[in-house]
Amino acid sequence: MTTIERLWEDFELPIKDALHYADGHSYDVAPDPAAPSGFMVLAPFDLDEMLECDPSWVSSVDGLAAVDLGEKGLLWGGEGSYGSEGFIARLTVERALIWAMFFMESNPFDRIQLSGNVATFSSTSGFEIAVDIDDPRTPVPGAAPNRTA
């Protein structure tokens, strides 16, 4: 079991603007309201190394919006422990993590719109993130490509 899967079991995510996959891969992300997807994917980082410096640097998350994908699982968006935090995630049917993104300054995500394979998550402050639900690193059709450093 990966570190992010262990955190997710307790409904926790690291306090860092980041994209995490259940397989243990993590990437820095930069919120960018000017980008068509609302964010940019940056360099990968080692989550274990990050938490080694401060294991308590995690936030409890709670869902505010969900979209049932039937046999394909669930999309979930919500808030962190502090008012400014928000997260978005895709889960399996059993509610295990597939991927999750956490933002320190987005505010809670309370709306999800699904169009084909693209989900748009909207926060209480109007911040929007558009992702391909199968892989958030994949550029959203009609949007500028996300950059992976």
Topology of helices and strands:
Layout: H1 3-9, E1 12-14, E2 18-21, E3 26-31, E4 39-45, H2 47-53, E5 58-60, E6 62-68, E7 74-79, E8 86-91, E9 97-103, E10 109-115, E11 118-123, E12 128-132
Antiparallel strand pairs: 1-5, 2-3, 2-9, 3-4, 6-7, 7-8, 8-9, 10-11, 11-12
Strand order of the largest sheet: 4-3-2-9-8-7-6
Radius of gyration: 14 Å
Number of contiguous helices: 2
What is the averaged pLDDT score? Answer: 93
Kindly report the oligomeric state of this protein: single chain
Structural class: mainly beta
- By DSSP, the count of extended strands is 12
N-C termini distance: 27 Å
Low-confidence stretches: 144-149
What sort of overall outline do the alpha carbons produce when their principal axes are compared?
Answer: globular
Q: Could you describe the largest sheet, including whether it forms a barrel?
A: 7 strands, antiparallel
Sketch the topology as an H/E string, one letter per element.
Answer: HEEEEHEEEEEEEE
What is the helix content?
under 10%
Total number of domains: 1
Strand content: 35-45%
Could you describe the 3D structure shown?
The chain has 149 residues and is mainly beta. The chain has one domain. It is 9% helix and 45% strand. It has 2 helices and 12 strands, in the order H-E-E-E-E-H-E-E-E-E-E-E-E-E. It has helices at 3-9, 47-53, and strands at residues 12-14, 18-21, 26-31, 39-45, 58-60, 62-68, 74-79, 86-91, 97-103, 109-115, 118-123, 128-132. A 7-stranded antiparallel sheet has the order 4-3-2-9-8-7-6. A 3-stranded antiparallel sheet has the order 10-11-12, with no helix packed on it. A two-stranded antiparallel ribbon has the order 1-5. The radius of gyration is 14 Å and the shape is globular. The model is unreliable at 144-149 (pLDDT under 50).
